Amino acid sequence: MGSYPPYDPGAGGVGRRIEEAIELIELEVRHAAAYINAAVIPQVRAESITALRNVSGALRNFADKLDAQGRPVTPPPSTPPPGPTDPQA
């Protein structure tokens, strides 16, 4: 059959076994919560900060490109055509 101990209605019986199981479950939940708080949350926070900084840089570059495209291009200063500048010459 299973790996559970045989049913023993004496010495607290099923009620006591259920209480013990609940205590073990509560202990495991506390351990899981402690692990999440100690290891998972700091790792997620660090990776989120890095990702946000990367996205921020990409958005800054994109905004710079849009800004550069939106500016009117100024023509270079005009120069006089080559040739004599003195009409009497």
Describe the structure in your own words.
The protein is mostly helical and 89 residues long. It has a domain at 14-71. Helix content is 65%, strand content 0%. It has one helix and no strands. It has one helix spanning 13-70. The longest helix has 58 residues, at 13-70. The chain is rod-shaped, with a radius of gyration of 39 Å. It starts with 12 loop residues before the first helix and ends in a 19-residue tail after the last helix.
Q: Which terms summarize this structure?
A:
single chain; mainly alpha
Question: What's the short version?
Answer:
The protein is built from 1 helix and no strands. With 89 residues, the protein is an all-alpha fold.
Task: Break the fold down into its secondary structure elements and pairings.
Elements: H1 13-70
Shape: rod-shaped
Question: What's the gyration radius in Å?
Answer: 39 Å
Largest sheet: none
Helix content: 55-70%
Measured distance between first and last alpha carbons: 121 Å
What are the segments in which pLDDT stays under 50 over at least 5 consecutive residues? none
Number of strands: 0
Tell me the series of helices and strands, N- to C-terminal: H
Mean pLDDT: 84
- The proportion of strand residues reads under 5%
Helix/strand-derived category reads mainly alpha
Give the helix tally.
1
